[in-house]
Design brief:
This protein has eleven helices and 17 strands. The strands form four sheets. Strands 2, 3, 4, 5, 6 and 9 form a six-stranded antiparallel β-sheet that branches. The relative contact order is 0.13. Helix 1 (46-61) crosses helix 2 (68-87). 36% of the residues lie in helices and 27% in strands. The protein has helices at residues 46-61, 68-87, 136-143, 148-153, 190-193, 198-207, 211-224, 247-252, 272-298, 340-348, 355-371, and strands spanning 11-16, 26-31, 34-41, 96-97, 99-105, 108-114, 118-123, 126-129, 173-178, 184-188, 231-237, 257-259, 262-264, 300-305, 308-319, 322-334, 350-352. It is an alpha+beta fold. It binds magnesium ion. Magnesium ion (MG) is lined by residues 39, 189-191, 229-230.
């Protein structure tokens, strides 16, 4: 869904799953003058959680004007929020996200950026990449050992060297740019830039009559080229006569924030009372979930991941719709080498009362796997 409206034709954005990925782990935010894209990492929906937390926290901490230092502080807050969420069992450990944020104040643009999503400016018809990719291939391009074209198809192109969610001392690139009226700002995830050369992106930005048309054409072109990744695009037309609606003003208009392809309206003040009741209910459920979580964290169980014995902290199944489990490790013990009864029990999850007990059991299975001939060649005598 595109969050632009007749009132806001100067910007538009959209997110598309693409043609290959099972879900969309990108998120984006359009709360003028603040715009951001985030590309979540971690799989199994954890990336989606990370990217959503990042843009929501960015919004909550963003400065009122195009102030790069203030924007960098908001990105640091987003980093802390993603790390904290993983520690609390939301998403999972190791999840992360890129974040590329821009505040547009007339012709002044403040940017803060981490990862390999990008900001570009079409300035007087020429496309300029404003951000540097924090990625392995980005480093190689900067050091002159790889061309930008080779980087686009390099097998390690998705390895990023800086992201939100791992390092509490992460530093964001932050800077301000003076644009001119008529310039066009583009924020995008690598699902666009991995599929389209800069020349093709520039051509769309030069010729599309509106930001909305540019967004639609860029996403269509990325999908035509294969749509290998989630594609998120925001296009903002820079104009000197832009209404400088502060963030409070934007909230009064109920300006939409879009997250992971969905348009989300922020609650109006009249909804606050209802919201308070809802929060009280959530807090009650949350307290029960927290109690269950602290119990679950002391527990452990063994299960099967990709045909191998895996060690989880937590308990199998779910509580109040929440999974209380944290993958500790996938061991090198193949389940196919164990006796069929053990294999069947592992499929359901074998509970033990500590991580140490789980690891002892793994050691026992490892020696069993070393002894046991494969069940496919020798029928087992185990009842
Ligand atoms: Mg991506």
């Amino acid at each position: 869904m595109i969050a632009a409206s007749r009132r806001h034709e100067w910007y538009a954005g959209a997110s598309d799953t693409g043609l290959v990925r099972p879900g969309n782990e990108d998120a984006y935010l359009m709360e003028p003058p603040l715009f951001a894209v985030a590309d979540g990492l971690g799989g199994h929906r954890a990336g989606e959680i990370a990217s959503t937390i990042a843009v929501e926290t960015l919004y909550a901490h963003a400065p009122k004007h195009a102030d790069a230092k203030g924007l960098a502080r908001a990105v640091r807050a987003a980093n802390a929020a993603v790390i904290e969420a993983a520690e609390q069992g939301r998403g999972r450990e190791g999840m992360g996200t890129t974040l590329t944020a821009a505040m547009v104040d007339g012709t002044r643009i403040a940017l803060a950026h981490v990862g390999d999503s990008r900001a570009y400016l079409l300035a007087r018809g020429e496309l300029v990449q404003l951000t540097e990719d924090h990625s392995l291939v980005g480093d190689m391009v900067r050091s002159g050992t790889l061309s930008a074209e080779a980087a686009r198809v390099h097998p390690n192109r998705s390895v990023i060297t800086r992201a939100l969610g791992s390092d509490p001392n992460m530093v964001a690139d932050a800077f301000e740019v003076d644009a001119s009226p008529g310039d066009r700002l583009l924020l995008c995830t690598d699902g666009l830039t991995g599929m389209l050369e800069d020349a093709a992106i520039a051509e769309v930005l030069r010729t599309a009559p509106t930001p909305k048309a540019a967004v639609a054409r860029l996403i269509a072109a990325a999908n035509d080229a294969g749509g290998h990744d989630n594609i998120t695009v925001i296009v903002v037309d820079i104009g000197a006569d832009r209404p400088r609606d502060g963030r409070a003003g934007a909230a009064e208009h109920g300006a939409p924030a879009a997250v992971a392809g969905e348009s989300v309206r922020r609650p109006r003040r009249t909804w606050l009372a209802r919201l308070a009741w809802a929060l009280a209910l959530v807090a009650a459920v949350g307290t029960a979930v927290l109690a269950a979580q602290s119990y679950a964290r002391s527990q452990a169980y063994l299960a099967v991941v990709d045909g191998r014995v895996a060690v989880y902290r937590g308990v199998p199944g779910e509580f109040a719709g929440v999974h209380l489990r944290w993958l500790e490790q996938v061991t090198d013990v193949p389940v196919s080498e164990l006796d069929p009864v053990t294999a069947a029990r592992l499929e359901r999850g074998i509970r033990v009362d500590s991580l140490a007990a789980a690891l002892d059991l793994v050691a026992a299975y490892r020696s069993q796997a070393a002894r046991e001939p494969s069940p496919s060649v020798a029928p087992t005598a185990t009842p």
